[in-house]
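Sequence only, no structure available. Ideas?
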Amino acid sequence: MESLLFTLNAVLPIILCIVVGYIVKLLKIFPDDFWSKLNKLCFRVLLPVLLFKNIYDIKSITLLGENWQALVFCSLAIVAVFFIGLLVVMFTIKDNRQKGVILQCIFRSNYAIIGIGLIELLATGGDVALAKGIGSVIAALSIPIFNILAIISLTIFIKEDGKKFSIKDTLIKICKNPLIIGVVLGLIFISFRALIPNDSNGNPEWTFRYFSDYGGNDTFIYTTIKYLAQAASPIALIALGGGFSFSAVSKLKFQIIIGTVARVVVVPVLCLFVAYLFKFDKPYFPALIALFGTPVAVSSAPMSAEMNNDGELAGQLVVWTTLASAFTLFAIVLVCKSAGLL
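Reply:
I predicted one. C-alpha cells follow.
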C-alpha cells in the first residue's frame, strides 16, 4: 500500500493538471489556437528556465566526478535504448511523422518533472540526502542527452522542402533548441560558480552571483527564475490537456500501444535488471527508477509539434504513458523493495 501511495502521489497531480486543461477546452474559454500558442510559451521560455534551474541547483560540480560510474552507465543505457528504439520504429511504423515521436517516447523519460520528486519519495533512512544528490548529478547529464537525442529523433525522418537528412542542419537545430540552451547555460553557471572562493562555512563569498545569501533569502534574480520554473510543468500539462482528443485514440491505437509498452514496461525492466547485474548500491536505485521508469517527458509534445512531427500522437503518448505508469511504477517499486534495492 505504501508503494501504491508513492506512485499515486507522483502521478496523479500530472493527470489532474491534464484533466484541468481538457475541461477548460470543453468550456471554450479560449479560442482553439490558444493551446498551440501556450505550447510555444512552454517550449521557448518556461521549460528552458526549468532545465536551467534544475542544473544550477546542483550544490557542487564536483559531484559529477564522484558519481562517474552511474553517469557512464546512465549515458550508455540511454544511447543503447535510443538505437534499439530506432530499429523498432523503422520496422513497425510507416508514417515518417510518427517514427521520431515514438522513438522519443521509447528512450526519453519524464525525469525532470516526475523523477526528482519520485527520488525523494523512494529514498529512505540515511540515504535520502545521498540519493537526492545522485539524482541531481544524473539530471545534469541525462537531460542534455535526452534533448539532443530527441532533436535527432524528430529530424532524421522528416524531409523539409525535399531536403535529405543533414548532419550539419541537425547540429544547428541542436544548438538553437531552447531546451539545449537552458541546459548549457546551467552548466556554464555552475562551472563559473566553482571558481568563486568559499568562506569559512564552505559557501561562495560572492553570494549575489549565487543568487542566494544561504539564509533562506533568495535574490530577485533567482526568485524570478524559480517562479518561471515552477510555472513550467503545470502550464505544459494544462496545454497538453487542452490539445488532447479522445477521438484520436482509435486511429492511433497501434502507435500508442507500442510507445506506452516500450516506455513504461520494456525499458525500465531491461535497464534496471542490467543495473542490478552491475551491483549498484541501494542509494542509486531511486534515481535509476526515476530515470528509466517514469512516463515520456511532457516537453516531448510541444517539441514534436514545433518540429513538424505528429504533435497529436506525442500528446497521446504523454497521457497514456502517464496513466500506465501509475501501475507499472507500483510494480517496479514493489519488486525493487522485495529485492532489497530500496
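The chain has 15 helices and no strands.
Hope that gets you unstuck.
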